[in-house]
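Q&A log
Question type: sequence-to-structure
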Amino acid sequence: MAYHRKRPAPDPCPVETVLKIVSGKWKVRVLHLLSLDELSFGELRNSIVGVRQQVLSSLLRDLIADGAVRQRKISSERSIYALTERGFELVALLTPLAEWGNNLLAEQGIAWRPPEPRRSAQHGGGGETYLASAHPSARNAQR
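Response status: OK
Response body:
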């Protein structure tokens, strides 16, 4: 039997709409990493300490459905993930929030560094960190 709401759904809230896209333990970190460069699933997984494969797979599907990330198949077994224009806009909006959060952490004596991509030998070399971004709004957001 299908569930039917007894009360009408509340009016949509623009802030809640954005928070729904970025809510989740690892989504903002994935968005940050993809703002730096296109990455494979394995590179994302290696760049975020503690994320489980199933969780990363699920959140990438969510970000793709929300229009923030795109997936490009390289082969039947390998895909590259990148931000869409909407994804870059979202990262640019999140940057001031991250700076404010960093200030709150600093007040508590906590120093935080954002994750950096861990590159595979197939993609760009022996594990070096690559921080260039092809998108100008992401570069401006990093300043």
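Response note: The first strand starts at residue 39 and ends at 40.
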